[in-house]
Design brief:
Blueprint: H1 4-12, H2 31-44, E1 48-51, E2 57-61, E3 72-77, E4 92-94, E5 102-105, E6 110-112, E7 128-130, H3 139-157, E8 166-171, H4 185-188, E9 192-198, E10 203-205, E11 210-219, H5 235-245, E12 261-269, E13 273-282, H6 285-306, E14 310-318, H7 322-325, H8 330-341, E15 347-348, H9 356-362, E16 369-371, E17 383-385, H10 386-404
Parallel strand pairs: 3-8, 3-9, 9-16, 10-15
Antiparallel strand pairs: 1-2, 2-8, 4-7, 5-6, 7-17, 10-16, 11-13, 11-14, 12-13
C-alpha cells in the first residue's frame, strides 16, 4: 500500500483555494487539478469513479457480501480556505516530536509554541506535519481526503475485508459554504454518510452552527474636508458605528461551546463608500434568527438616521444538522463505537463551524462529521499528526465493518 503520508503530501502540493467572489461552480478551476487526480487514482485502484462539470467526484466500491446492507458514504472536500495562501505549500515533517516549540520559519522567526497551543503536548512521540509559516497546510480537508483514499485502497487490496456498498464523494467549495450546492444525493446513492472533516483525533459531531452571511454597502459623500461642514458623509465612520452597535460579547474572541457570534471578516472603505462582510452563527435556531433580525434592525436605524445610504444583502448558508441526524441516531452510535474500536476516546461535541454534512443532512442524507486529525485550520499555525490521519482511516474501516456485521 502507498503510505498515507505520501498521499497527503501529494494532495497538499496542489493549490485548491476556493474563491468567494466567484459565481462559477466550482469557484476556482484549480480545484479540478486535484479532483482529476483523485478520480484517476480511484480508477487505478479498480474503483468506478466519475467527475462531473460541477466538480464532484463520486465513486462506488461494490458490496462483497450477499446480505443487504445500506450503502454508506464517506465525503471530504478538496478546497482550502481563502483566509490564507494555499499556493506552494511546503510541509515540514517532524518525526518523533519531542514536546517543545517547533520552528516554522527561521527567517521570520516563527515558532509553533506550546505556550500558545498546549494541545501539541498530547502528540509527543508522534510525526507532526506543519507549515513553513508562509501558507496554510491544507489538512482541512486534505487530511480527510487522504484518510478516505487510504481506506479505499485497503478495501481494494484486501478482498477478505467484508463490506456493503461503499460510496466515496469529493466536493469543491466547502470553505465558502457552497460545497454541495449542486450535489446530486440520489446519484450519489448512499443511505447514510459521514464527512471526514473534523479536527483533532476523536472528534465526532452531529450538530453545527446555523449560518448566514451579511454583505453591507455604505454610500458616503466625499467633500473637500475644508468645506465638508453639513455636507460630508464619511462612510467609514458609519461602518464603525454599525459595528459598535453589535454586541461586543458576541464576537468570536469571546465565545465558545454553543455560543454564537457576529464575525466581521472583511472591510474595505474610503470616505465615499465602504463595504463590510460578516458571518453570523448560532447553534440555537431562535437565537440565530434573532441575530439576523438585529443586524437588519441596525441597518434600518442607520438608514433613518443618515437617509437610506446603507444596503444589506443577507444570505442563508446552512442550518444545524442535529434535527436531521437525531432521528437516525444509530449512525452516531456506530461512529462512537468505531472510534472506540480504534483505541480512541470519542469527543462528541458541537461543530463551531459547518461541514458539507449540514446541507447534505437537510437534502435527505444524514451525515455526521468525523475527525481528520488537524489543528489550527485556515492559517500558518495549522498542523496535523500523521497518526491522527491514520486513525481517521481506521475509523472509516471500522464503520464499514460495523455496518457489514
Amino acid at each position: 500500500m502507498e503510505k498515507l503520508l505520501d498521499k497527503f503530501l501529494r494532495y497538499v502540493s496542489v493549490e485548491t483555494t476556493s474563491d468567494p467572489e466567484s459565481e462559477t461552480q466550482p469557484s476556482s478551476m484549480r480545484q479540478f487539478d486535484l479532483l482529476k487526480m483523485l478520480q484517476k487514482e480511484l480508477q487505478e485502484m479498480g474503483i468506478e469513479a466519475d467527475l462531473d462539470e460541477y466538480g464532484y467526484v463520486m465513486a462506488t466500491i461494490p458490496s462483497n457480501v450477499e446480505k443487504e446492507i445500506p450503502a454508506i458514504g464517506f465525503i471530504a472536500h478538496v478546497d482550502t480556505a481563502p483566509d490564507a495562501s494555499g499556493k506552494d505549500i511546503k510541509p515540514q515533517i517532524i518525526e518523533n516530536y519531542g514536546g517543545g516549540d517547533i520552528l516554522l520559519n527561521a527567517e521570520k522567526e516563527l515558532y509553533l509554541k506550546v505556550s500558545e497551543f498546549p494541545e501539541m503536548l498530547q502528540y509527543v512521540g508522534k510525526t507532526m506535519i506543519t507549515t513553513d509559516g508562509t501558507t496554510l497546510l491544507g489538512a482541512d480537508d486534505k487530511g480527510g481526503v487522504a484518510a478516505i483514499m487510504y481506506a479505499a485502497q485497503y478495501m481494494m487490496e484486501h478482498p477478505e475485508f467484508k463490506h456493503g456498498e461503499i460510496k466515496i464523494g469529493f466536493t469543491p467549495d466547502e470553505e465558502i459554504g457552497r460545497g454541495v450546492a449542486k450535489f446530486d444525493v440520489k446519484k450519489f446513492g448512499a443511505r447514510y454518510a459521514y464527512t471526514i472533516d473534523g479536527g483533532e483525533i476523536g472528534e465526532l459531531e452531529y450538530e453545527n452552527f446555523n449560518a448566514a452571511a451579511a454583505k453591507i454597502h455604505i454610500q458616503g459623500s466625499n467633500i473637500h474636508p475644508g468645506y465638508g461642514k453639513d455636507k460630508m458623509v464619511n462612510s467609514m465612520l458609519i461602518a464603525m458605528e454599525l459595528n459598535e452597535m453589535l454586541p461586543v460579547e458576541q464576537r468570536p474572541a469571546y465565545t465558545q461551546g454553543y455560543e454564537g457570534f457576529f464575525h466581521l471578516t472583511d472591510i474595505t472603505g474610503t470616505v465615499e463608500e465602504t463595504t463590510m462582510s460578516y458571518i453570523i452563527r448560532d447553534h440555537d435556531r431562535a437565537k440565530f434568527e434573532a441575530k439576523k433580525e438585529l443586524i437588519t434592525a441596525i441597518v434600518d436605524f442607520l438608514n433613518k438616521k443618515y437617509g437610506d445610504i446603507v444596503t444589506l444583502e443577507l444570505k442563508h448558508q446552512y442550518y444545524n444538522m442535529r434535527q436531521e441526524v437525531e432521528p437516525h441516531y444509530f449512525i452516531v452510535e456506530k461512529a462512537i463505537k468505531a472510534i472506540e474500536m480504534a483505541g480512541i476516546k470519542p469527543k462528541v461535541q458541537p461543530i463551531r463551524g459547518g461541514t458539507d454534512g449540514a446541507n447534505l443532512s437537510f437534502m435527505g442524507l444524514p451525515c455526521p462529521n468525523i475527525f481528520a486529525g488537524g489543528h489550527n485550520f485556515h492559517g500558518k499555525w495549522e498542523y496535523v499528526p500523521l497518526e491522527s490521519m491514520e486513525k481517521a482511516s481506521e475509523v472509516i474501516l471500522n464503520i464499514v465493518k460495523l455496518f457489514a456485521e
